[in-house]
Amino acid sequence: MSFSLPVMRPLLPTRRALAPYLRRIDHNRWYSNMGPLAQELALRLGHHHGAPALPLANATVGLTAALLAHDLPPGGRCLMPSWSFAATAQAARMAGLTPFFCDVAPEHGQLTPQLAEQSLATAAGPVVAVMPVCPFGHPVDWLGWQDFRRRHSVAVIIDAAAAFDTVQASEIPAVVSLHATKALGAGEGGYALCRDEELLRRMVRVINFGMDESRQSVTLGGNGKLSEYHAAVALAGLDHWPQRRRRLATLLGRLRRAVGDFAHWPAGLGDAYVTSTACVGFADSWAMEQALRDHGIETRRWWSGPLHRHPAFADGQQLPITEHLAATTLGLPCWIGMGRTEITALAQALAHVNHDRPATR
Fold this sequence. Notes:
The protein is α/β, with parallel strands linked by helices. The chain is 39% helix and 11% strand. The strands form 3 sheets. It has a 4-stranded mixed beta sheet. It has a 4-stranded parallel beta sheet with strand order 3-2-4-5, with helices on both faces. α6 (142-152) links the parallel β4 and β5. α3 crosses α4. The longest helix has 19 residues, at 241-259. It is globular, with a radius of gyration of 21 Å. The relative contact order is 0.17. The model has no long low-confidence stretch (mean pLDDT 94). GO terms for molecular function: transaminase activity. This is DegT/DnrJ/EryC1/StrS family aminotransferase.
Protein backbone atom coordinates (compact mmCIF):
# COMPACT_ATOMS: atom_id res chain seq x y z
CA MET A 1 0.00 0.00 0.00
CA SER A 2 1.72 3.19 -1.16
CA PHE A 3 -0.64 5.59 0.66
CA SER A 4 -0.68 5.72 4.45
CA LEU A 5 -2.68 8.17 6.56
CA PRO A 6 -2.00 8.03 10.33
CA VAL A 7 -4.80 8.68 12.78
CA MET A 8 -2.70 11.11 14.86
CA ARG A 9 0.47 13.15 14.44
CA PRO A 10 0.81 15.26 17.59
CA LEU A 11 2.29 18.72 17.20
CA LEU A 12 3.92 20.36 20.22
CA PRO A 13 5.70 23.74 20.38
CA THR A 14 8.90 23.95 18.35
CA ARG A 15 12.40 24.25 19.72
CA ARG A 16 12.33 27.95 18.82
CA ALA A 17 9.11 28.54 20.78
CA LEU A 18 10.53 26.68 23.77
CA ALA A 19 13.90 28.44 23.80
CA PRO A 20 12.97 31.38 26.09
CA TYR A 21 11.52 29.03 28.68
CA LEU A 22 14.43 26.59 28.52
CA ARG A 23 16.84 29.48 29.07
CA ARG A 24 14.90 30.38 32.20
CA ILE A 25 15.20 26.79 33.44
CA ASP A 26 18.94 26.87 32.82
CA HIS A 27 19.20 30.16 34.70
CA ASN A 28 16.98 29.13 37.63
CA ARG A 29 18.38 25.60 38.02
CA TRP A 30 14.96 24.67 39.41
CA TYR A 31 13.53 21.62 37.69
CA SER A 32 10.52 20.41 39.68
CA ASN A 33 8.68 20.97 42.99
CA MET A 34 6.42 23.78 41.74
CA GLY A 35 9.23 25.83 40.24
CA PRO A 36 8.83 29.28 38.69
CA LEU A 37 7.53 27.99 35.35
CA ALA A 38 4.96 25.70 36.99
CA GLN A 39 3.82 28.62 39.13
CA GLU A 40 3.52 30.83 36.05
CA LEU A 41 1.57 28.11 34.29
CA ALA A 42 -0.84 27.94 37.22
CA LEU A 43 -1.40 31.71 37.00
CA ARG A 44 -1.87 31.70 33.25
CA LEU A 45 -4.26 28.75 33.28
CA GLY A 46 -6.17 30.45 36.07
CA HIS A 47 -6.41 33.63 34.03
CA HIS A 48 -7.46 31.67 30.92
CA HIS A 49 -10.29 29.86 32.72
CA GLY A 50 -11.16 32.33 35.45
CA ALA A 51 -10.40 30.07 38.43
CA PRO A 52 -7.39 28.79 40.38
CA ALA A 53 -5.46 26.01 38.63
CA LEU A 54 -3.05 23.38 39.93
CA PRO A 55 -0.49 21.92 37.48
CA LEU A 56 -0.10 18.13 37.72
CA ALA A 57 2.18 15.39 36.41
CA ASN A 58 -0.77 13.99 34.46
CA ALA A 59 -4.55 13.93 34.55
CA THR A 60 -4.82 10.45 36.08
CA VAL A 61 -2.78 11.64 39.05
CA GLY A 62 -5.07 14.65 39.23
CA LEU A 63 -8.26 12.59 39.36
CA THR A 64 -6.75 10.37 42.05
CA ALA A 65 -5.56 13.40 44.04
CA ALA A 66 -8.96 15.06 43.82
CA LEU A 67 -10.63 11.94 45.21
CA LEU A 68 -8.06 11.55 47.98
CA ALA A 69 -8.38 15.23 48.89
CA HIS A 70 -12.03 14.59 49.76
CA ASP A 71 -10.96 12.03 52.42
CA LEU A 72 -13.58 9.52 51.34
CA PRO A 73 -14.16 6.22 53.18
CA PRO A 74 -12.07 3.40 51.64
CA GLY A 75 -14.03 0.94 49.54
CA GLY A 76 -16.86 3.37 48.86
CA ARG A 77 -18.37 3.37 45.40
CA CYS A 78 -17.38 5.93 42.81
CA LEU A 79 -20.18 6.32 40.27
CA MET A 80 -18.90 6.87 36.74
CA PRO A 81 -19.86 6.23 33.12
CA SER A 82 -18.62 3.01 31.61
CA TRP A 83 -18.22 4.99 28.39
CA SER A 84 -14.84 6.53 29.20
CA PHE A 85 -11.10 5.97 29.06
CA ALA A 86 -9.55 3.50 31.48
CA ALA A 87 -7.91 6.29 33.51
CA THR A 88 -11.30 7.22 34.98
CA ALA A 89 -11.72 3.87 36.69
CA GLN A 90 -8.02 3.46 37.47
CA ALA A 91 -8.02 6.76 39.35
CA ALA A 92 -10.91 5.58 41.54
CA ARG A 93 -9.12 2.31 42.27
CA MET A 94 -5.89 4.12 43.14
CA ALA A 95 -7.86 6.32 45.53
CA GLY A 96 -9.14 3.19 47.31
CA LEU A 97 -12.65 3.36 45.85
CA THR A 98 -14.72 0.86 43.88
CA PRO A 99 -15.84 1.89 40.39
CA PHE A 100 -19.61 1.73 40.00
CA PHE A 101 -20.47 1.90 36.31
CA CYS A 102 -23.63 3.24 34.78
CA ASP A 103 -25.04 3.94 31.35
CA VAL A 104 -25.02 7.28 29.56
CA ALA A 105 -27.40 9.48 27.62
CA PRO A 106 -27.64 8.42 23.96
CA GLU A 107 -27.61 11.96 22.54
CA HIS A 108 -24.10 12.87 23.78
CA GLY A 109 -22.68 9.82 25.56
CA GLN A 110 -22.52 11.49 28.97
CA LEU A 111 -23.43 10.61 32.49
CA THR A 112 -25.94 13.31 33.41
CA PRO A 113 -27.06 14.43 36.88
CA GLN A 114 -30.46 12.84 36.19
CA LEU A 115 -28.90 9.47 35.31
CA ALA A 116 -26.65 9.69 38.36
CA GLU A 117 -29.68 10.21 40.61
CA GLN A 118 -31.30 7.11 39.16
CA SER A 119 -28.11 5.11 39.75
CA LEU A 120 -27.85 6.23 43.38
CA ALA A 121 -31.13 4.47 44.03
CA THR A 122 -29.85 1.16 42.63
CA ALA A 123 -26.42 1.07 44.27
CA ALA A 124 -25.71 -1.98 46.42
CA GLY A 125 -23.61 0.12 48.79
CA PRO A 126 -22.79 3.73 49.64
CA VAL A 127 -21.85 5.97 46.73
CA VAL A 128 -19.30 8.45 48.05
CA ALA A 129 -18.23 10.10 44.79
CA VAL A 130 -19.38 10.68 41.22
CA MET A 131 -17.01 11.20 38.32
CA PRO A 132 -18.73 12.57 35.20
CA VAL A 133 -16.70 12.59 31.98
CA CYS A 134 -16.51 15.09 29.11
CA PRO A 135 -16.58 12.58 26.21
CA PHE A 136 -13.86 13.54 23.73
CA GLY A 137 -14.07 17.12 24.99
CA HIS A 138 -17.85 17.58 24.86
CA PRO A 139 -18.96 19.93 27.68
CA VAL A 140 -21.00 18.59 30.57
CA ASP A 141 -23.79 20.25 32.58
CA TRP A 142 -21.51 22.20 34.92
CA LEU A 143 -24.32 23.95 36.82
CA GLY A 144 -26.34 20.75 37.00
CA TRP A 145 -23.45 18.93 38.65
CA GLN A 146 -22.99 21.70 41.20
CA ASP A 147 -26.66 21.38 42.09
CA PHE A 148 -26.35 17.58 42.24
CA ARG A 149 -23.49 17.84 44.74
CA ARG A 150 -25.43 20.30 46.88
CA ARG A 151 -28.56 18.13 46.98
CA HIS A 152 -26.90 14.75 47.54
CA SER A 153 -23.77 15.68 49.55
CA VAL A 154 -21.67 13.45 47.32
CA ALA A 155 -18.20 14.41 46.09
CA VAL A 156 -18.15 15.25 42.38
CA ILE A 157 -14.95 15.30 40.32
CA ILE A 158 -15.19 15.93 36.58
CA ASP A 159 -12.90 14.03 34.23
CA ALA A 160 -12.33 16.80 31.69
CA ALA A 161 -9.21 15.21 30.19
CA ALA A 162 -9.99 16.23 26.60
CA ALA A 163 -11.94 19.37 27.47
CA PHE A 164 -9.34 22.15 27.52
CA ASP A 165 -11.55 24.22 25.20
CA THR A 166 -14.81 23.59 27.07
CA VAL A 167 -13.97 23.23 30.78
CA GLN A 168 -15.72 25.77 32.99
CA ALA A 169 -14.72 27.05 36.39
CA SER A 170 -16.89 26.00 39.32
CA GLU A 171 -16.75 24.78 42.92
CA ILE A 172 -16.36 21.26 41.53
CA PRO A 173 -12.81 20.18 40.61
CA ALA A 174 -12.30 19.42 36.93
CA VAL A 175 -9.12 17.73 35.73
CA VAL A 176 -7.72 18.44 32.27
CA SER A 177 -5.01 16.47 30.45
CA LEU A 178 -1.98 18.06 28.77
CA HIS A 179 -0.94 14.82 27.08
CA ALA A 180 0.70 15.19 23.67
CA THR A 181 -2.48 14.05 21.91
CA LYS A 182 -4.68 16.73 23.50
CA ALA A 183 -5.75 20.07 22.03
CA LEU A 184 -3.19 21.82 24.24
CA GLY A 185 -0.34 19.40 24.87
CA ALA A 186 2.82 19.42 26.96
CA GLY A 187 3.95 15.86 26.18
CA GLU A 188 2.76 14.78 29.61
CA GLY A 189 0.96 16.76 32.26
CA GLY A 190 -2.40 18.05 33.38
CA TYR A 191 -4.05 20.44 35.79
CA ALA A 192 -6.98 20.73 38.15
CA LEU A 193 -9.32 23.69 37.90
CA CYS A 194 -11.51 24.63 40.86
CA ARG A 195 -12.81 27.71 42.69
CA ASP A 196 -12.52 25.82 45.99
CA GLU A 197 -8.98 26.89 46.94
CA GLU A 198 -8.99 24.84 50.14
CA LEU A 199 -9.60 21.70 48.09
CA LEU A 200 -6.72 22.62 45.80
CA ARG A 201 -4.47 23.08 48.85
CA ARG A 202 -5.37 19.58 50.01
CA MET A 203 -4.59 18.31 46.51
CA VAL A 204 -1.17 20.00 46.73
CA ARG A 205 -0.43 17.85 49.78
CA VAL A 206 -1.58 14.70 48.01
CA ILE A 207 0.71 15.27 45.00
CA ASN A 208 3.65 16.07 47.30
CA PHE A 209 3.84 12.83 49.30
CA GLY A 210 1.06 13.90 51.66
CA MET A 211 3.39 16.43 53.30
CA ASP A 212 2.36 19.64 55.00
CA GLU A 213 4.55 22.70 55.64
CA SER A 214 6.56 20.72 58.21
CA ARG A 215 7.59 18.32 55.43
CA GLN A 216 5.99 15.47 57.35
CA SER A 217 3.39 13.26 55.69
CA VAL A 218 0.02 14.00 57.22
CA THR A 219 -2.10 12.19 54.62
CA LEU A 220 -1.81 9.60 51.88
CA GLY A 221 0.02 10.96 48.85
CA GLY A 222 2.63 10.48 46.17
CA ASN A 223 4.59 12.45 43.60
CA GLY A 224 2.27 14.14 41.15
CA LYS A 225 4.09 17.41 40.48
CA LEU A 226 4.62 18.83 37.00
CA SER A 227 8.25 19.25 35.95
CA GLU A 228 9.61 22.62 34.79
CA TYR A 229 10.30 21.13 31.36
CA HIS A 230 6.69 20.11 30.84
CA ALA A 231 5.57 23.47 32.22
CA ALA A 232 7.78 25.11 29.57
CA VAL A 233 6.02 23.19 26.80
CA ALA A 234 2.59 24.08 28.18
CA LEU A 235 3.52 27.76 28.47
CA ALA A 236 4.80 27.85 24.91
CA GLY A 237 1.58 26.17 23.83
CA LEU A 238 -0.49 28.79 25.64
CA ASP A 239 1.48 31.52 23.86
CA HIS A 240 0.10 30.25 20.55
CA TRP A 241 -3.26 28.84 21.66
CA PRO A 242 -5.44 31.29 19.68
CA GLN A 243 -3.68 30.34 16.43
CA ARG A 244 -3.76 26.65 17.31
CA ARG A 245 -7.45 26.80 18.13
CA ARG A 246 -8.19 28.41 14.76
CA ARG A 247 -6.23 25.67 13.01
CA LEU A 248 -8.14 22.97 14.88
CA ALA A 249 -11.47 24.61 14.08
CA THR A 250 -10.54 24.86 10.40
CA LEU A 251 -9.40 21.23 10.34
CA LEU A 252 -12.56 19.94 12.05
CA GLY A 253 -14.71 21.97 9.67
CA ARG A 254 -12.94 20.49 6.65
CA LEU A 255 -13.25 16.99 8.07
CA ARG A 256 -16.95 17.49 8.70
CA ARG A 257 -17.50 18.58 5.11
CA ALA A 258 -15.36 15.74 3.76
CA VAL A 259 -17.09 13.06 5.79
CA GLY A 260 -20.53 14.49 5.05
CA ASP A 261 -23.46 12.28 5.98
CA PHE A 262 -21.39 9.09 6.19
CA ALA A 263 -21.00 9.53 9.95
CA HIS A 264 -22.72 11.10 12.96
CA TRP A 265 -20.72 13.94 14.52
CA PRO A 266 -20.90 15.14 18.15
CA ALA A 267 -22.94 18.30 18.54
CA GLY A 268 -20.94 21.52 18.43
CA LEU A 269 -17.61 19.98 17.42
CA GLY A 270 -15.62 22.42 15.31
CA ASP A 271 -18.25 25.09 15.91
CA ALA A 272 -18.90 25.70 19.61
CA TYR A 273 -15.73 23.91 20.69
CA VAL A 274 -12.62 22.20 19.36
CA THR A 275 -10.81 19.05 20.35
CA SER A 276 -7.89 17.06 18.95
CA THR A 277 -9.80 13.94 17.88
CA ALA A 278 -12.55 13.26 15.37
CA CYS A 279 -14.56 10.51 17.07
CA VAL A 280 -17.67 9.88 14.99
CA GLY A 281 -20.43 7.28 14.74
CA PHE A 282 -20.84 4.69 11.98
CA ALA A 283 -23.60 2.13 11.65
CA ASP A 284 -20.95 -0.60 11.40
CA SER A 285 -17.71 0.80 12.73
CA TRP A 286 -15.93 -2.56 12.65
CA ALA A 287 -16.49 -2.96 8.92
CA MET A 288 -15.55 0.68 8.39
CA GLU A 289 -12.37 0.23 10.41
CA GLN A 290 -11.27 -2.68 8.21
CA ALA A 291 -12.30 -0.97 4.98
CA LEU A 292 -10.36 2.18 5.79
CA ARG A 293 -7.36 0.09 6.79
CA ASP A 294 -7.49 -1.52 3.37
CA HIS A 295 -7.21 1.99 1.93
CA GLY A 296 -4.15 2.77 4.05
CA ILE A 297 -6.11 4.92 6.52
CA GLU A 298 -5.54 4.37 10.23
CA THR A 299 -8.37 4.73 12.74
CA ARG A 300 -8.47 4.40 16.51
CA ARG A 301 -10.91 3.32 19.19
CA TRP A 302 -9.58 5.80 21.67
CA TRP A 303 -11.53 4.34 24.61
CA SER A 304 -11.03 0.62 23.86
CA GLY A 305 -14.58 -0.46 24.63
CA PRO A 306 -16.83 -0.14 27.71
CA LEU A 307 -14.96 -0.07 31.01
CA HIS A 308 -17.34 -2.61 32.55
CA ARG A 309 -16.01 -5.10 29.97
CA HIS A 310 -12.31 -4.49 30.71
CA PRO A 311 -10.78 -7.43 32.63
CA ALA A 312 -9.58 -5.13 35.41
CA PHE A 313 -13.09 -3.79 36.08
CA ALA A 314 -15.54 -6.38 34.67
CA ASP A 315 -18.76 -6.46 36.66
CA GLY A 316 -21.22 -8.27 34.38
CA GLN A 317 -23.58 -5.33 33.93
CA GLN A 318 -25.71 -4.78 30.85
CA LEU A 319 -25.36 -1.16 29.71
CA PRO A 320 -26.95 -1.05 26.25
CA ILE A 321 -26.27 2.57 25.30
CA THR A 322 -22.63 2.27 26.27
CA GLU A 323 -22.36 -0.98 24.31
CA HIS A 324 -23.91 0.72 21.29
CA LEU A 325 -21.55 3.69 21.47
CA ALA A 326 -18.53 1.41 21.79
CA ALA A 327 -19.65 -0.57 18.75
CA THR A 328 -20.33 2.47 16.56
CA THR A 329 -17.72 5.08 17.54
CA LEU A 330 -14.48 5.33 15.59
CA GLY A 331 -11.70 7.92 15.67
CA LEU A 332 -10.79 9.22 12.21
CA PRO A 333 -7.46 10.83 11.25
CA CYS A 334 -7.34 14.29 12.79
CA TRP A 335 -4.15 16.29 13.22
CA ILE A 336 -2.85 19.76 12.50
CA GLY A 337 -1.07 19.63 9.17
CA MET A 338 -3.56 17.37 7.42
CA GLY A 339 -3.83 18.91 3.98
CA ARG A 340 -6.07 18.63 0.97
CA THR A 341 -4.43 15.37 -0.15
CA GLU A 342 -5.09 13.58 3.14
CA ILE A 343 -8.63 14.91 3.60
CA THR A 344 -9.56 14.11 0.00
CA ALA A 345 -8.20 10.58 0.38
CA LEU A 346 -10.30 10.08 3.52
CA ALA A 347 -13.43 11.39 1.80
CA GLN A 348 -12.88 9.19 -1.24
CA ALA A 349 -12.31 6.10 0.89
CA LEU A 350 -15.48 6.76 2.88
CA ALA A 351 -17.47 7.27 -0.31
CA HIS A 352 -16.09 4.05 -1.72
CA VAL A 353 -16.82 1.80 1.26
CA ASN A 354 -19.84 3.50 2.79
CA HIS A 355 -22.04 4.68 -0.06
CA ASP A 356 -24.73 2.14 0.77
CA ARG A 357 -24.32 2.15 4.57
CA PRO A 358 -26.51 4.64 6.50
CA ALA A 359 -24.92 6.72 9.23
CA THR A 360 -25.89 5.89 12.80
CA ARG A 361 -28.09 8.48 14.49
